[in-house]
Task: structure prediction
Amino acid sequence: MNEVIRADDSDAVRLSQVIADAFIDLPPSRWLIADPVARRDVFPGYFRIFVEHTLASGVVHTTPDRSAVALWMFVGDEHDGGPPDYESRLAALTSPWTDRFVAFDAALDQCHPAGISHHYLAMIAVRPDRQSAGAGAKLLRSYLKEIDKQDGAPAYLEASSERVRGLYLRHGYALRPSAPFYLPDGGPPMWPMWRRARGGS
Result:
């Protein structure tokens, strides 16, 4: 399916599961929770926090069959405050691994560009049985085309694997000087990436 559509509140549960399934075996995911059974239990609720927040405050793009999803937030001069009641929801959903999730957030926040407005790709995911068919690239191109037409603002993301890092490099992103950074306690690398502003029309 080629069409890219905007998700709404009725899609929250389904798209949270898409992200959970797509991210289940990524190195940062294994660092967050080593036990794969526990990851499968925790992740859908965890990612629903971000899907719901982005539905309320940003843009969630998906495909008509809901097999792929991208979460975009516009970040102004001040960083977004994050989901309401995030700390309490995080603790309720992720205990006894909450400290890992807090450390993960801190590592990402430390590398996130400050003082410049930009579009932030918080997450992009494709259901495992639909991966490598171009859906993720389609979602990415669609939003980048929109921002280039509208405000031409820069864009930022963190790549969680070398494979997706290559995808973003092909779509105009470049590695930040701090790339890669490593999650604490011998954790895996992540690659902060920046796409320069284009001229808006």
